[in-house]
């Protein structure tokens, strides 16, 4: 959220997201905040696209501007201009261009990640467990090792990314993990299976927060949340593609004497390798660093476009200039970020919110095979829920931004899952039609996932680049820890109906609903506490605070948490 300052409106001082005593004498006019239409369907026919889009910010008042001045080594400093103005038509055009140049490739990279980490469930339909003499507990252990290693690698990967730059580290990650993914062609038993799962996770860990940090260089907060919705949609699209590819690759069983699942691992790893190689030339270091031999000597954006990109982002969030894009995080800063208790409500939600749906997802293809669906049909039946999941997740993400409500919108997914989990707990699933079980499970898995909302929410409430770097990794670490818990709820001694496991999932879901409510209460009271202290200060005291405070990021009195 932008810094909360004071603006005179009709003689009354009210809290806004603008500036202190805004005086625009001698400066170009600013846009009216109420005129911003975030999405195309909100823009009426009379919407003036040629109106000034530049929003009021702390940089419009000389007294506050110096308190938020970008650091001298910030990579975009030469394009920073507090007097720059642009129209809505220009802003929307540049956002579309960023989507085309930056966002689409980010989605393609994420699809490559998902191909190599999710194809294990497709391999199950081709007698993977039988060929390697595994039990379902071995499968659970593989998932646990993967998620644990993924979790451990999150933070180190983020620190390397911040030091090298995500434009260098992310392509390197992809090439390295594609080699490990392809090596699964030669799996011979339990040890090689666990080793490759661990190595794959170590190299993939941190990829998601790395990309999120990278995208934050180009987008405003609400734009990033929507893009993250599409970003995770690509994971679902990748799952669909993975199912279709598996339907073909698994038919190669017997080619050169090898099982189909071995070809699945190898061929999908080659796809990732190609994407990783192209990523080296398709990921510029930042909005003002797009010129290269591959992208052209003039780069992707004109000087005017670079000015718009840089200033619209920093006017909304001045903290995005407090580190340059290749500055490492020191141990002292790392510890400072880790002990930020104001972000822990989101970390706890990240730990628990997906658990009620993960076991059903991991066991879907295996359960379909146990219900006597053949290999091809089992893979194809995993596609419908994924397609519906895309629609519900995007709808949820748009709803959160349209109504500017994060907590109550995020909890909708838990209420979606509730009736289907109740059915699995009370129905006689042993004698139910296999099509009914498939339909119930598919509808459960189609729930509107709040993950994109919560990742953006975590980023907003961090309020500094260094904090975002660490908090993005921490949040994802908690999500992976939740995955470890979820991977061990369905056990072999509870198969095939998993009565005990389903009761545990229902209890966790009810707990999640309570957690969302407590998080809402926490942030509301934190903001009220700061409002009380901030509003009790005079304008002079506020300026003195801004010039002398050692508070940083979300600890500043002029910062308000979003919820």
How would you sum up this structure in a few lines?
The chain has helices at residues 62-65, 88-123, 128-131, 136-164, 166-183, 190-204, 207-216, 221-249, 260-282, 303-316, 331-338, 344-352, 358-370, 375-380, 383-403, 407-410, 412-426, 434-445, 451-460, 465-487, 499-535, 539-548, and strands at 5-9, 12-16.
Topology:
Elements: E1 5-9, E2 12-16, H1 62-65, H2 88-123, H3 128-131, H4 136-164, H5 166-183, H6 190-204, H7 207-216, H8 221-249, H9 260-282, H10 303-316, H11 331-338, H12 344-352, H13 358-370, H14 375-380, H15 383-403, H16 407-410, H17 412-426, H18 434-445, H19 451-460, H20 465-487, H21 499-535, H22 539-548
Antiparallel strand pairs: 1-2
Work out the helicity level: 55-70%
Q: Could you tell me the strand content as a percent range?
A: under 5%
Given as residue ranges, the uncertain stretches (5+ residues, pLDDT < 50) are: 5-24
Kindly provide the radius of gyration, computed on alpha-carbon positions and rounded to a whole number of angstroms. Answer: 25 Å
SSE run: EEHHHHHHHHHHHHHHHHHHHHHH
- State mean pLDDT (0 to 100 scale): 83
* Structural shape: globular
The number of helical segments is 22
The total beta strand count reads: 2
Q: How far apart are the termini?
A: 10 Å
Biggest sheet, in brief? 2 strands, antiparallel
Structural class: mainly alpha
- Which strand order spans the largest sheet, edge to edge or round the barrel? 1-2
